[in-house]
Amino acid sequence: YETEEERVEAIKAWWKKNGGAITTGVVLGVAVVFGWKMFQDYQVDQALSASYHYEQVLSASEQDNHDAVLDVTKTLTTSYSDSNYAVLSSLLAAKSSIDNGKLDDAAKYLTWAKDNAPVDLASIARIRLARVQIAQNNYDQALTTLDYTFSEQVSSEIEEVKGDAFYKMGKLQEAKTAYEKALTSITNGQRKTDLEMKLYDLAV
């Protein structure tokens, strides 16, 4: 440009053409940054609140306060359903229900846990649910619950519970096969002894 005025006019023309888009981009950028910060703060608040409620469940469980365990678990599964604390609380609620002879309630909490838990906790919930279903004489249902791809770490326990279901159904050969599979990967000395006793009982 030959003169300062020409440069100023060129800048004005460029701004007139592009200024709106730039302003919009800046506003959107600020909104995204601010929104992300709010979302992170919200997640932190949710995690802290869920942790606080889970501590209440632990305390109520230690005091054998069944009603309190269920009340706080309801809050966690309703308001913090995406949190692992809700799953852990459901497992405790199921245990408390079993201790109080309420197998139907225990099955309800364990079903919620298996449907909402990450893989490792879902395996625990499924195994416990199958045990409850066996106690309810729902043997086929227990086997269906165990019809799932589990990690190698829990394979022996899965086979043992399957064996228990088959035994209750009177399918002794299937029970024997399941118990023998469980023995091949078991490492716990006491559980190994228990399984050997179950196999002995079958032989008798």
Percent range of helical residues: over 70%
Give the SSE string: HHHHHHHHH
- The fraction of residues assigned to DSSP E strands is under 5%
Largest sheet: none
Nearest-angstrom radius of gyration?
Answer: 29 Å
Structural class comes to mainly alpha
N-to-C span: 105 Å
Write down the overall mean pLDDT: 86
Counting DSSP E segments of at least 2 residues, the number of strands comes to 0
Number of helices: 9
The stretches of 5 or more residues where confidence is low (pLDDT under 50) are none
**Form type:** elongated
Give a written overview of the molecule.
The structure is a single chain. This protein has 204 residues and is mainly α. Helix content is 83%, strand content 0%. The chain has nine helices and no strands. The radius of gyration is 29 Å and the shape is elongated.
Summarize the structure.
By secondary structure, the protein is mainly α. Helix content is 83%, strand content 0%.
What key phrases describe this protein's structure?
204 residues, mainly alpha
Topology:
Layout: H1 4-62, H2 66-79, H3 84-99, H4 103-116, H5 119-135, H6 139-145, H7 155-168, H8 172-184, H9 189-203
Helix pairs in contact: 1-2, 1-3, 2-3, 3-4, 4-5, 5-6, 5-7, 6-7, 7-8, 8-9
